[in-house]
Amino acid sequence: MVGPKQIILQGLLLLLLITPAIGKVGLPRAVQVELRVVARELAVSRRAQLLANRNAVAAQEAVLAATTGEGGRDLRDLRRRAERAREVFYFWQSRCVSLEQRRGDLRERRRAWRRSGGAIAPRQMPAAGAVEVPFRSDRSRSGWDGGIGIRVEAGDWVRAAAPGTVVFAGTLPAYGGVVVLDHGLRVFTVYGGLGGAEVALDAPVSVGARLGQADLEGGGLVYFSVRRGREALDPQSWHRELESGKSLESSQE
């Protein structure tokens, strides 16, 4: 019987072998690539779960045999082995459930983008208000870069400009409360000047979802940035192109 530690090590080694090096491919990876990686990890985890289940059943049968006096082995040691085997099985079972949920989330994002005609760019501004800090300017707020400052009423809700996944929710110097959304295909949106995040890390959000309220101490100035990889895009230019029927993808080709 293969030991519990060997099962975990073998499974994790397989995951390392089939998963691309993140540092080489960059983040975020395209959703289709992520789906392939998750599918492979899920296949490996299911095989490991099956093997762990067989070991757990064999260990339990050994305990029963020893209880009836047929095994001739130390009952206490057999029970410890059976408990470890069950723990390994539960580990892989939990991992399979997590991967299946991740795959479902990715498939839903892919369906949403297909329904939108393949445009993954932000679809709306995060808040209604005048642009007080233009793109590439930090005249009104020291340290701001690569985005715009939108003047809103303090306490107004700041909303997601497009469906995506929360990859950061916290505070940053000069930006205050910040939420960063990953929209896939290397497109991010950044929202600053929030009093606090109303979303959790790794949570999927839909377009228009509430991310947080404009910070009262900041006077209602909201930072908004659209980024493709490391490149900062002018949110106002993007918005005019979107209204004229152009997508971010076509405008960048």
Sequence-ordered SSE layout with sheet pairings:
Elements: H1 4-18, H2 22-25, H3 31-67, H4 75-115, E1 130-133, E2 148-151, E3 157-159, E4 164-172, E5 176-182, E6 187-194, E7 204-205, E8 210-213, E9 221-228, E10 231-233, H5 235-243, H6 248-252
Antiparallel strand pairs: 1-2, 2-9, 3-8, 4-5, 4-7, 5-6, 6-9, 9-10
Helix pairs in contact: 1-3, 1-4, 3-4
Description:
The chain has six helices and ten strands, in the order ααααββββββββββαα. It is of the alpha+beta class and 253 residues long. The protein folds into two domains: 4-115; 130-252, Glucose Permease (Domain IIA). Strands 1, 2, 4, 5, 6, 7, 9 and 10 form an eight-stranded antiparallel β-sheet that branches. A two-stranded antiparallel ribbon has the order 3-8. Strand 5 and strand 6 form a beta hairpin. The termini are far apart.
What is the level-2 CATH architecture name of the largest domain?
A: Distorted Sandwich
Catalogue the unreliable spans: 12-29, 116-120, 241-253
CATH class of the largest domain: Mainly Beta
Shape annotation:
elongated
Number of helices: 6
The structure class reads: alpha+beta
CATH topology of the largest domain: Glucose Permease (Domain IIA)
- The count of strands amounts to 10
Query: Which range does the strand content fall in?
Result: 15-25%
Percentage of helical residues?
Answer: 40-55%
How many structural domains can be distinguished in the coordinates? 2
Radius of gyration: 25 Å
CATH superfamily of the largest domain, please? Answer: Glucose Permease (Domain IIA)
The average pLDDT is 75
Distance between the first and last residues' Cα: 57 Å
Largest sheet properties: 8 strands, antiparallel
Give the SSE order as H and E letters: HHHHEEEEEEEEEEHH
